[in-house]
């Protein structure tokens, strides 16, 4: 039994180092400390661990549904064979050596070369609130929202300290962890591996869910059984990447969208990362998320520290959907700093798919006029507006030279932008806003910047600098590169009435000069993001990485929305957007209605279908030239834009229920319910014709059983009827879509 009323005996040899916590020291009921047993209590989650009194190791007790009072201690199997005791217990922060052969959370190469560690409990503190993470994005909250426990571990042999931070957001059943490693010794050490969090589950049988894909095929959910040995995903691209998202869910094999236990883990980080899941010989399942050890090798001199990014863990007993809603609420309220987090996302028109690089001041003013006539409220000028000596007329030149191309803009940007912002959206008194595309971290060799600063481009000695989309990556780890970006962005934003920035990033990093450059780049990039978004808080910032190549919680700290994919085919987008919604709030997704045949897939879908899918993203837009549209399609746009504006508050602030998934059903369905439950909107799709088949039912979720709901076009039904029996919506076209509003009576 793990006693929760008496203090455990301290580890031998540590008496002098132990603090003397008492129950009275517990700062709130969200963190309760009894001796050296720790309990983090959320509304529906308990997270418990304690110090092993003989080894000083931190032992996991429980992460899941509520447990109270004393809890039974794990009975450890007797030691037979090669696995030592540390390999037979569930550990909070596994270090290397001493018989735990599973993946460690930390590996430090000491001054004299050893990589064995012996991190033992030394002390702890509890505070209301949550300190910022130095130089890194992080969830935030007041003392009413969050309580933070920090446990110091110390290795007497290497003089390395590890401060484990646990913040509990009790309303969100979320435990946020990070670790700070300090070299307290006299020589240099190297941190070779550092996970932000590690947890050992006592269960043999779990499924893992990750989000994988590639360019234009992001965020496809993959569910598989956790097998013996290690399995996982990660990025070594220098960015979170299209290939795998820094996210993991572990679920009971019986868990569905709407029922069962689910644990979600999301790394608040944008660089290379590692997600490892390991079922060990004893049957426990370990999950670790953190910096990618292949690209770390972080040197610490005496007194220096390395702070890991943080990892958000949420627990749900309401299935995968419940897990997602916890992430969405937490991220909307306690991660995204922008004032636009949950409001004011004007319907926009982006020039990329419509005009590509082919425009000038006069044609964009015309396009903006046409956009305004349709009801658009934000005109976004995408790639192609810059470059003097090396004009950006295609993707072969210009990146790095952020001066308007005089051939396209003979009078600079301010004058056409004034004309555009002088327009008004049809039938409103709303002035059109203007936004612009940039890709600040990149450089084309065909640019003045590259000729002046070839050393600013990422390179490894004399190895060839590999081009990708004809461009190289600037080394944002260098302070002079950070300052260059901050300066030109400040000048650009001050040069014209610009209220929106699309910040793109169109390649991974190939020739990293050293492993630690990866994380140094991120620290530099976060400095740039933080400086600019603080300096220009009224700008609506959109992140982008060749589509969803940089859709992560780190970017969301600064930018409230991210372009979800360069694949604008609405059918594909259902999968991509619902996959992305496993962890990220729909408010954060940029989604556009584009022309047909679709540029990526060649598919033609009805205009309403394309519009309905796009309006499930928080930032709805058009990505086309209306002048090239069939008359019927064009005539449908004003109505779709109005509808997008009507549903938008529910998308930005509401709770999302994935009623049926495109991978399981020909009829995917999504419900958004407003925060106070008074309104809801259903999106329902038929993705292929089905002949001579009974008409399926949409069964709702998340409604109030006892309340009555007026369902647009259908009548009034109780929440119980809608959830348990459902409604039928026949389609008379081969593919079709409907949007239906519900009002609680
Ligand atoms: C990337 C983006 C697109 C567009 C182009 C411009 O691919 O994802 O939306 O901005 O770059 O070059």
Query: What is the CATH first-level class name of the largest domain?
Result: Mainly Beta
Choose one word for the global shape.
Answer: globular
Question: What proportion of the residues is helical, as a percent range?
Answer: 10-25%
* Count of strand segments: 38
Computed over alpha carbons, the radius of gyration is 27 Å
| Overall number of domains | 3
Structural class: alpha+beta
Ligands present: alpha-D-galactopyranose
Q: Low-confidence runs (pLDDT<50, min 5 residues)?
A: 5-27
In CATH terms, the superfamily of the largest domain is alpha-galactosidase from lactobacil brevis
Cα separation of the termini: 51 Å
For the biggest sheet, the summary is: 10 strands, antiparallel
Walk me through what this model shows.
Strands 6, 7, 8, 9, 11, 12, 14, 15, 19 and 20 form a ten-stranded antiparallel β-sheet that branches. Strands 21-22-23-26-27-28-29-30 form an eight-stranded parallel beta barrel, surrounded by five helices. Strands 5, 10, 13, 16, 17 and 18 form a six-stranded antiparallel β-sheet that branches. Helix 3 (361-374) packs parallel to helix 4, helix 6 runs parallel beside helix 7 and helix 9 (570-580) runs parallel beside helix 10 (607-614). Residues 5-27 have low confidence and may be disordered. The two termini are 51 Å apart. The chain contains twelve helices and 38 strands. It is 18% helix and 29% strand. The chain has three domains: 4-334, Distorted Sandwich (Beta-galactosidase, Chain A, domain 5), CATH 2.70.98; 337-355 and 380-549, Alpha-Beta Barrel (TIM Barrel); 679-744, Golgi alpha-mannosidase II (Immunoglobulin-like, Sandwich), CATH 2.60.40.1180. By secondary structure, it is of the alpha+beta class. A hairpin with a 4-residue loop joins strand 7 (146-155) and strand 8. Bound molecules: alpha-D-galactopyranose.
